Amino acid sequence: TLAVLSSSDYAEARDWIASPWNASMAVLLVASVFYHARLGVQVVIEDYVHRRALEIALQVVVAAAALVGAIIATIAILKVAFAG
User: What angle do the packed helices 20-48 and 52-83 form, to 10 degrees?
Assistant: First the structure.
């Protein structure tokens, strides 16, 4: 459905995301994408960073960035969903 919406204007996309089902699925998509991205970067850090203190610091930064990104994206989805 998101591929079909790529050629839509803002009003059509807003109407689509205003459906509770679509909004909840979009939030779940955002959560799974950020979680998957965090896991991918975590593996890269574990494989290539050999100083333990730096590795832990980077893991904390990546986890925080993923959480903040997911929260911001979720808020954006909910704002668009409830704005109409």
Answer: 170
Q: Tell me how far CA of residue 20 lies from CA of 14, 25, 39, 78, in angstroms.
A: 12, 8, 29, 10
Matching residue, tokens 């574990």:
46
d(CA 71, CA 31): 9
* 57 contacts 47 by C-beta, under 8 angstroms: no
- CA atoms of 49 and 58, how far apart (whole Å): 9
Contact status, residue 17 vs residue 80, Cβ threshold 8 Å? yes
Q: What distance in Å separates the CA atoms of residue 65 and residue 33, rounded to the nearest whole number?
A: 13
Q: pLDDT per residue over 26-63, tens digit each?
A: 999 999 999 999 999 999 999 999 999 999 999 999 99
62 with 38: CB under 8 angstroms?
yes
